[in-house]
Specification:
With 415 residues, the chain is an alpha/beta fold. The protein contains 14 helices and 19 strands. Among the domains are: 133 residues, Rossmann fold, CATH 3.40.50.150; 124 residues, Rossmann fold. Helices cover 34% and strands 22% of the residues. It is globular and about 65 Å long.
Length: 415
C-alpha cells in the first residue's frame, strides 16, 4: 500500500473534505506518467484510488486524493517542444498577449510549469526578460540549455516573496495546463497576488470541464489532474485570494480548454466574453452536482464500447497497436482490462519514453518509425486531441491501408 507521504488525502486546502460527493470511479490505477523501465517490468505497480468528486463549496470537480507532488513531478517525461502544434500555439499566444497588453522589451514574463521553455522562448525573441518556474529538474535543465532561465521549484507564496524582494514584478505570468495539477491552488494564487505588477495579468490555460463532460473524456482523469475547472469554479478560487477573472477564450487544446485571464480587481474591466460565459455556466448547470451525475453514468458505457471495438479487431484476425504514450494511454489501457493485451506496442515521438513500458499493462513504447516498419492494421490513437496533426504525420501509413481508431467522443475508425 502507498504510504501516507505518497497519498495526501488532506492536501486540498480549498475546502472541507466532507463536502465532496462521488461522480465516477475508475478504480485503483497506477500513476499515468510513471513509465516503467524494462528492468523493472516484473515489479508490481503501486495503485492509487482514481475517483472523481464534486465540491459544493467551490462548484469544483476534483479527485478524492492527492498523490504527493514530488512523487509526480520531480522528474517528468513530457517535453512540450515534441509537439510542433503546441509550440506554434504558444508563439501565437505570445504575439496576442504582447499586442493586447502593450508588453515591451525589458518587461518580465514568467511561466509556472514552464517545461522546456517552449513558450518563454517567444517572449525572449521579442526582447522581454523571462523566468520559468518548474519543479522537474530534468526539464528545467533542458530549458536552461536552450537559454531560458528556469527556477526549479514549486511556485507558491514563499517563492513569490523571494522574487519580489529581488525586485521582480512580472507584467504577465502564464500557467499552461498546470493549475489542474497543483494541490495548493490557493497558495499559487496567493503568490501571484504578492508578485504580479499592479497592472500585471495572469493567463491560465486549463481543460474545460464542460467539454470533458460533453465528450465523455474520461481519459483526462488521472492522478496529476486534481482539478477540472469551469470558469465559475476558477473565479471563486481567484477571488478568495485577491484576483478576479477579466477575460476568457475557449480554445481547442486538449479536447477543449479555457484560456482565462485574471488581474487585480479594478485593474481592468471584465470582458463581455467572461460575463457571458459565467452566465451560460449558471444556465446549463455547471454549478450543480446533477450536471456531473449524468457523466458518471456514461463513462462505464464508453469504456465498454471501446473494449468491444478492440475485441472486434482481434476477432477479425487483425493487428492493433497504439499511438501516443501520453497519460491518456495509461488511463484507457488500464480501463480496458484483458483487451489491452491485444496492443503490440504504443508508438511515441519522445525519446524519453521510447524503450519503456506503460504502467499497469506493461505495453512497450517504441519509436514512431515502428508504425511504418511493422504496419499494424489499426492504431488506437491515445493522443486523440491532436488527431489532425497525427493524421498528417501518418499519411503514408493511412495511404497503405492503415486505420486509426479514435476513442472520443465515441470509438470510431478513421481510414
Amino acid at each position: 500500500m502507498p504510504s501516507r507521504h505518497e497519498i495526501e488525502e488532506s492536501s486540498f486546502p480549498l475546502h472541507a473534505k466532507h463536502a465532496l460527493r462521488p461522480i465516477v470511479s475508475l478504480g485503483r490505477q497506477p500513476l499515468a506518467n510513471n513509465l516503467v523501465p524494462p528492468d523493472q517490468a516484473s515489479e508490481p505497480d503501486e495503485l492509487f484510488p482514481l475517483d472523481l468528486m464534486w465540491c459544493e463549496d467551490l462548484k469544483l470537480v476534483q479527485l478524492s486524493v492527492s498523490v504527493a507532488p514530488r512523487r509526480l513531478f520531480s522528474t517528468y517525461l513530457y517535453l512540450t517542444s515534441f509537439s510542433q502544434a503546441l509550440v506554434d500555439a504558444a508563439r501565437e499566444n505570445v504575439e496576442a498577449q504582447v499586442a493586447k497588453y502593450g508588453l515591451q522589451a525589458g518587461d518580465l514574463a514568467m511561466e509556472i510549469g514552464s517545461n522546456d521553455g517552449y513558450l518563454l522562448q517567444h517572449y525572449q525573441a521579442r526582447g522581454l526578460t523571462v523566468l520559468g518556474v518548474d519543479p522537474a529538474e530534468n526539464v528545467a535543465a533542458h530549458a536552461r540549455e536552450k537559454g531560458v532561465p528556469t527556477l526549479c521549484a514549486f511556485f507558491g507564496a514563499d517563492v513569490a516573496d523571494a522574487l519580489r524582494k529581488e525586485g521582480r514584478r512580472p507584467k504577465i505570468v502564464h500557467a499552461n495546463n498546470v493549475m489542474a495539477h497543483i494541490p495548493d491552488v490557493a497558495g499559487v494564487i496567493r503568490g501571484l497576488s504578492i508578485l504580479l505588477d499592479d497592472r500585471g495579468v495572469f493567463v491560465v490555460e486549463t481543460p474545460y470541464v464542460r467539454r470533458m463532460v460533453e465528450q465523455c473524456e474520461y481519459d483526462t482523469i488521472y492522478h496529476e489532474h486534481l482539478f477540472y475547472y469551469s470558469l465559475t469554479s476558477f473565479n471563486l478560487i481567484l477571488e478568495r485570494e485577491g484576483l478576479t477573472v477579466i477575460d476568457v477564450d475557449e480554445i481547442g487544446a486538449h479536447g477543449g480548454s479555457l484560456r482565462i485571464t485574471a488581474a487585480r480587481p479594478g485593474a481592468y474591466d471584465r470582458s463581455d466574453a467572461a460575463r457571458n460565459m459565467l452566465a451560460e455556466e449558471r444556465r446549463i448547470g455547471l454549478d450543480r452536482y446533477e450536471y456531473y451525475e449524468a457523466f458518471g453514468r456514461r463513462v462505464p458505457q464508453l469504456i465498454k464500447q471501446l473494449r468491444a471495438t478492440v475485441d472486434d479487431v482481434v476477432a477479425q484476425g487483425r493487428t492493433i497497436a497504439g499511438y501516443g504514450a501520453a497519460a491518456k494511454a495509461t488511463v484507457i489501457l488500464n480501463t480496458l482490462g484483458q483487451s489491452a493485451s491485444a496492443l503490440r506496442w504504443v508508438a511515441d515521438r519522445s525519446s524519453f519514453k521510447q524503450g519503456q513500458l506503460i504502467p499497469g499493462v506493461r505495453v512497450p513504447v517504441v519509436p514512431v518509425e515502428t508504425v511504418f516498419s511493422e504496419r499494424p492494421d489499426y492504431l488506437l490513437v491515445f493522443a486523440w486531441n491532436y488527431i489532425d496533426e497525427i493524421a498528417r504525420q501518418l499519411s503514408s501509413y493511412r495511404d497503405a491501408g492503415g486505420r486509426l481508431i479514435v476513442p472520443f467522443p465515441e470509438p470510431r475508425v478513421v481510414g
